[in-house]
Amino acid sequence: MCYDVAIIGAxxxxxxxARLLSSYKLKTVLLxxxxxxxxxxxxxxxxxxxxxxxxxxxxxxxxxxVEGCRMMPEICRELSVPYKNNGSLVVAFSDEELVxxxxxxxxxxxxxxxxxxxxxxxxxRELEPNISPEAKxxxxxxxxxxxxxYELTIAAxxxxxxxxxxxxxxxxVTSVDDLGxxxxxxxxxGDVDAKYVINAAGCASDDIARLFGDDSFKLIIRxxxxxxxxxxxxxxxxxxxxxxxxxxxxxxxxxxxxxGNLLIxxxxxxxxxxxxxxTTAKGLETVRRLAMKSVPCVSTRDAITSxxxxxxxxxxxxxxxxxxxxxxxxxxxxxxxxxxxxxxxxSAKMICEALFEAMGAEPAKNEAFNPIRKEPVRFxxxxxxxxxxxxxxxxxxxxxxxxxxxITEGEIIDSIKAPAGARDVDGVKRRTRAGMxxxxxxxxxxxxxxxLARELDLPINEITKFGGGSNILFDKTK
Amino acid sequence: xxxYDLAVVGGGPAGMAAALKAKECGVKKIIILERAETLGGIxxxxxxxxxxxxxxxEELSGPEYAGRFIEQVRNTDIDVKTDTMVLxxxxxxxxxxxxxxxxxxxxxxTAVVLAMGCRERPRGALSIAGTRASGxxxxxxxxxxxxxxxxxxxxxxxxxxxxDIGLIMARRMTLEGAxxxxxxxxxxxxxxxxRNIVQCLNDFNIPLKLSTTVIETHxxxxxxxxxxxxxDEHGQVIDxxxxxxxxxxxxxxxxxxxxxxxxxxxxxxxxxxxxxxxVTEMRETDHPGVFACGNxxxxxxxxxxxxxxxxxxxxxxASYIQDREVFENAEYISTSHGNGVRYIVPQKMNIRSKExxxxxxxxxxxxxNAKVVLEADGTIISSKKKVKLAPGEMENVTVPADVIAKLTxxxxxxxxxxxxx
Amino acid sequence: xxxxxxxxxxPLGCSITVExxxxxxILSVTGNTCKRGDAYARTEMTNxxxxxxxxxxxEGGRHPVVPVKSAAPVPKSMLFDCMKxxxxxxxxxxxxxxxxxxxxxxxxxxxxxxxxxC
Lengths: 478, 421, 118
Prior knowledge:
The structure holds three protein chains of three kinds.
Chain A: E1 2-8, H1 12-21, E2 28-31, E3 48-49, H2 60-79, E4 83-84, E5 88-92, H3 95-111, E6 116-120, H4 121-127, E7 137-141, E8 145-147, H5 149-162, E9 166-168, E10 173-178, E11 183-187, E12 190-199, H6 205-211, E13 219-229, E14 240-243, E15 253-256, E16 262-265, E17 269-271, H7 281-294, E18 303-314, E19 320-323, E20 330-334, H8 340-359, H9 384-393, E21 400-402, E22 407-408, H10 409-417, H11 425-432, H12 445-456
Parallel strand pairs in A: 1-2, 1-12, 2-9, 5-14, 12-20
Antiparallel strand pairs in A: 3-8, 4-8, 5-7, 6-7, 10-11, 11-12, 13-16, 13-17, 13-18, 15-16, 19-20, 21-22
Helix pairs in contact in A: 1-5, 1-8, 2-8, 10-11, 10-12
Chain B: E1 2-9, H1 13-24, E2 30-33, E3 49-51, E4 60-61, H2 62-74, E5 79-81, E6 85-89, E7 94-99, E8 103-114, E9 118-120, E10 129-130, E11 136-138, H3 139-149, E12 156-160, H4 164-175, E13 179-184, H5 194-201, E14 208-209, E15 212-218, E16 225-230, E17 243-246, E18 249-252, E19 256-258, H6 261-266, E20 290-292, H7 303-322, H8 325-328, E21 332-337, E22 341-345, E23 348-350, E24 357-363, E25 367-376, E26 379-389, E27 395-399, H9 401-405, E28 413-418
Parallel strand pairs in B: 1-2, 1-8, 2-5, 8-20, 10-15, 11-18, 12-13, 12-18, 13-14, 21-28
Antiparallel strand pairs in B: 3-4, 6-7, 7-8, 9-19, 15-16, 16-17, 21-23, 22-24, 24-27, 25-26, 25-28
Chain C: E1 2-6, E2 15-20, E3 26-30, H1 35-46, E4 49-50, E5 53-59, E6 65-70, E7 74-75, H2 79-88, E8 90-92, E9 100-102, E10 112-114
């Protein structure tokens, strides 16, 4: 069979695009090279919905960010993804930086950002009592928010699949034949034919474009390292606290997450290896030191984990979204670095518009499209009576697997059985939070492996942490 | 709402011993709530021997030690709910728990014994740089995989942390055919029992690298190696000592943390050093009727001591349920730890106590031929010479009843280490 | 000649000094706090032994393996040979604590017994 559209890359941009395409009468396939969605930048970033004052006026980044920020609350409601409009603060530590935040304010106004305000030291300390006494003032952007980026990607994919999109994991595209009417994509999971291709391959989108004869852009891979701190210090700040931006990015931020943790980071280091998500002692130390500049009481003694995410920085410094000059049936959605998450809802719209332009017409609407993704059971958030009822219907909700986060066996089974569901331990973790607490899977890890093996009908030594060769166990001892 | 005289949270060695002691003291309605499928707690997977020498006078494996208490519990009318997780304990001692069969359970308990045990410190708390490959796990998780599930969690192994679990796992994995390359220890001394260094490492020629830590992990999918480095006396990496060690597994045995989330929920005060509740010699917390024992109170090195401590808590809970007079008339002073002593349990003692009170403590460094000195109001009560004192081994000293009889509410009780000249 | 040992008879881990004459005969054992320490030091000098614990495969049990131990210490030099024997065994559930799994492992006179129900 030949698909109308193949989307390469199930990050937040690809997933949101797939979801939007599922509202049309199109046969769409979402191809992902990893064992799960959101395995690139979409699982490892600052989890911020930026207000949109940061990008240069007139760029795609600024336009899509401001629009995406407006669309995000509604989309998160439809997809049952936690979103919080907590507002952000860019903190100035010197007179020069006070000038910088005024510039950011002016740029925000030009970009169409509303609800901004320059606040003085006194108001800043009222809003954030733990902020450094050195902070002289700040730019408050009330429209900014926080969201869980991988949950958004997972939910969008789930919703797309429920509305008819096909999802293929472990399907990295290795070569392409243009057969005139359609492309034949050779993937690790077999050949896939599609009339149009959307290249949303994140850090690999320049390589993918090249397979189609498009070498019009190049990406620089920039690693950013973070610490996640325990929920016991999750209330240290309520806003997202930025430092003044520099050439390398937006500096080190301190922010609460929608799950109640505190997130600090990222660094910005250009690297050569597109798959190198290793953290470094130096990077983590930088995060620790600079986070304390904004919020002195932040201590990495409360760290429960650290990670690095890779950003696909385009040398043009702006998102590359549109029909490829090299092949008009290829739509690029490349160079989506920050504010890619914030922009994703608007980017998806723009990508679809480009696709329809390439097709020559907007396809018919899918009348059966349901924008709502049913909220997964989150036992920890339910009342006693809701819990009673749930356990009566399905006793698996009465068995707690992850004690730190209070996650039940029922929720883990749901995450595996969901459309485009979890196939590995990290997949279960991202969907349910099992193993994301303070013991980091020390107790529940082996139980999750058992449940995965049982539900997927595999021997437990075939269960992986995140696909590929990341198996957890070797052979039987006996 | 179920009504019990005593609810015990946790059915490991501490919980079982506390419940059994309370039963022996005449408490009628007792329930044990255990989150695992069986009673026994972590002992189920501790298949090595060395348990019970003090309590039973013989050398048992973990399951055998637990088995004796499980048998005793079965022979009483103590109610047991396994696969049951306690979600919350209110400040009125109302317990909310959940399991598959009963759904939500609400239990009104006159007294509660907290015996939830401890958890292992994970990698995240250590800030080891590098990749997120599979094959990095706590020693306890690895122990479960090999001893209960019957699978090898690794073949070429580096162990970080020379606590007892790390040492035991070095031997276990070696006997099962794995190659244990080394055990690294950040401190200049091992945190484990000396006997374990001898029979788990020396017997198999496994090197113990002191003042050494793992600073980076390598490998994108499965772990391929780690970088180790020497550290100075402040725990800082000494540049130039980095060394790559090829391995497919990194096991972490870097400390145990009492699981006090429920305890905090009740509003019980915790000791910042032990990370367990502040308790009296009866093992009562500062919340009336709530007792704590075992590894949730302080991390023990010997289960025998857990059992003995749990019996104090069980007895305390029994007297709280049956006759609160002792509690109402109690007058507490704090025990204080002097030179070389990191903490003392109990943190508070009743000066109206008619019986001897044993103070358990740990030292902060290794001492040779030092003295353990007990002082009451500045007067030396006892001074006991010890050939060796080490942080890995819990010590105790007894405050005799006749000394307690002379104490007043302004008195001080202090334990300290006197180093040899 | 003097040899220093750490006693493994119990968790105390006493530092024991064994004094030997030129023929390797034990002259004295000091530093131990109990009789077991004395005995340990003497055996360690002549025929060191160790307790062995492992698991054996179970069919139809609640877990795939059941823990076992040597009912008495076995010669230290034979630990890996004993493991080979233990790894050959498959037992059928139910298994009870104390059940004999191997009666006399490698002629040592020591039994391998189950240490849990399965």
